[in-house]
Amino acid sequence: MSDDSFPGPAVLALARGPALRRRRVGWLAGVAVLLALAGWLASHQLASPPAPPAVVPAQEPPAALTVRLAAATERLFARPIIGDGSVVAWQDMSIGIEVAGLRVVEVPIEEGDRVAQGQLLARLDDALPASQAAQAEAAVTEAEAVLTLAQADLRRSTELARSESVARQTLEQRQSMVRQLEAKLLASRARRDEATARLAQTRILAPDAGIVARRSILPGAVAQPGQEVARLIRDGRLELDARVPELDLAAVRPGQPVRVRHGATEIEARVRAVAPIIANDNRLGIVHIALPAGSGLQLGMFAQAEIFPAATAALTVPQEAVVYREGRPAVFVLPDSTARVALRAVRTGGRRDGVVEVTEGLAAGERVVAGGAGFLSDGDRVHVARDR
Question: Please, are residues 345 and 309 in contact by the beta-carbon 8 Å criterion?
Answer without folding.
Answer: no
